[in-house]
Design goal:
Blueprint: H1 5-22, E1 35-41, H2 46-61, E2 66-73, H3 79-88, E3 95-99, H4 103-109, H5 116-121, H6 132-135, E4 139-140, E5 143-144, E6 147-153, E7 155-159, H7 160-165, H8 171-176, H9 182-196, E8 199-203, H10 215-218, H11 238-252, E9 271-276, E10 291-294, E11 306-314, H12 321-331, H13 334-340, H14 354-360, H15 366-379, E12 381-382, H16 389-400, H17 410-425
Parallel strand pairs: 1-2, 1-3, 8-9, 11-12
Antiparallel strand pairs: 3-11, 4-5, 6-11, 7-9, 7-10
Helix pairs in contact: 1-3, 14-15, 16-17
């Protein structure tokens, strides 16, 4: 398979930035007078953007050098490709959200400005409050290149009304009985679909494209996309074959998940359960269905948690790089971090308590926050990430395409994945 044009742009953009970064920081080229800062992000959620703009407006009141702070939402599905296309085209933002799957490339490319000095010297910032475990993915050579803005474990949002209508036990009841596992979750999802005609379970943002979101499922089998050192393909392991065989049956035989080409929005009442993060809680309607949030079901290897991370970095070649870093220090200080925690679990150890998170998460109960967020961060593994992730991801996605057919040979498809990506992993 040929690498798509978007991926060639991505690779070229990041590779080119190594040379650009060596030329020095961007503030030397800064224009005099008030500046405009632009930050790209993946969310267009009104509640998220409202809070971001409120924080930005407060900052501008005491920083006359800042004329405007723009938050620029990019489509989730091709966020990284769009961002790197902007970089390659000379339209780089000043700040950018970065997904965990592309963190190795951004951190090692020289594209980002080190943040340690700015954050540490900011009065009252409390740099030492940042959990060391949340920083690792964003560090290189002892320097921090992006702030771990959101360290958010995946959980399962549940439509209790729909499950009860289908005559199924709720996850809370299964948890109380020690029976909350993938076998029972998929069985309840299948029965709900058969009874109501609506979707049983949706792995949000998978949609037969975002395969790395399936790590929220196959990690329960002890399966990995690749080895811990990143050099060996994991798709042909017995654990992965078992996990994917079970998933294939759940989709095409039991109808527990909506099939390819079918969409179902849990938050619109179209599915009984969805795997996603707490930032989506803002989509729940106060006058909607009775819902719950529970941890991921146990897999054959027992209980587990998967964490999605997003960092915010400052582009080193931004002509306003230092101004952008100063705003980032304000945006993520202790006060604002507590406000942002209603959507994005913070890396601050002092704020990672159920009581603290509950203050800004009125829709979620302290027990839900403890079981899903706090325990999830403590015990979770981060979604798959690797240098050259863009090319790897497209190769995996293309190689998995034959899987999403009723008569697929699951084991053969997974062998095909390794055939495609092993040469890339071995580089």
């Amino acid at each position: 398979m040929k690498i798509g044009k978007g991926l060639r742009v991505t690779a070229a953009a990041l590779a080119g930035l190594v040379g650009l970064a060596a030329c020095g920081g961007g503030d030397d080229a800064a224009d005099s007078g008030p500046v405009t800062l632009r930050m790209t992000l993946w969310t267009a959620n009104e509640a998220h953007l409202k809070l971001f703009n409120e924080i930005a407006d407060e900052y501008k009141k005491t920083h006359s050098n800042i004329a405007e702070i723009k938050f620029d939402p990019l489509p989730f599905d091709n966020y990284t490709t769009t961002l790197t296309t902007q970089i390659a085209g000379g339209n780089a933002p000043d700040l950018a959200w970065i997904f965990e799957n592309s963190a190795p490339d951004f951190v090692s490319s020289g594209a980002l400005m080190p943040l340690d000095e700015t954050l540490k010297k900011t009065e009252g910032y409390g740099y030492d409050d940042l959990s060391p475990a949340t920083l690792k993915l964003w560090q290189d050579g002892g320097k921090l290149y992006a702030y771990p803005f959101s360290t958010s474990p995946f959980g399962v949002f549940v439509n209790n009304d729909m499950l009860k209508k289908a005559g199924q036990k709720t996850p809370a009841e299964l948890i109380a009985a020690g029976q909350w596992n993938w076998t029972n979750a998929l069985a309840a999802a299948s029965a709900t679909n058969a009874s109501t005609g609506k979707a049983g379970l949706v792995i949000r943002d998978f949609d037969y494209k975002g395969w790395d979101n399936l790590s929220t499922y196959f990690t329960g089998w002890g399966a990995q996309a690749w080895s811990a050192d990143g050099k060996s393909c994991g798709f042909t392991s017995p654990e992965m074959v078992d996990a994917m065989t079970t998933l294939h049956k759940a989709i095409f035989v039991d109808k527990a998940l909506p099939g390819p080409g079918t969409t179902a929005d849990f938050f619109a009442g179209e599915a009984a359960m969805t795997v996603t993060q707490i930032s989506r809680a803002s989509l729940l309607k106060d006058d909607g269905f009775a819902w719950d949030l529970v941890p991921l079901p146990a897999g054959p290897k027992g209980n587990y948690s998967v964490v999605g991370q997003a960092g915010i970095g400052v582009m080193k070649k931004s002509k306003n790089a230092q101004a952008a870093a100063d705003f980032l220090a304000y945006f993520t200080n202790a006060t604002n971090s507590e406000k942002l925690a209603q959507f994005f679990p913070p890396p601050r150890q002092s704020q990672l308590t159920a009581e603290t998170l509950a203050k800004t998460n009125p829709k979620l109960k302290p027990e839900q926050l403890q079981k899903v967020v706090i325990d999830g961060i403590t015990n979770g593994v981060v979604k798959p990430n690797h240098a050259g992730q863009a090319e790897l991801s497209q190769q995996v996605r293309a190689a998995l395409d034959p899987m999403w057919k009723p008569d697929a040979d699951v084991k053969a498809v997974l062998e095909g994945v390794c055939t495609k990506i092993q040469p890339l992993l071995a580089k």
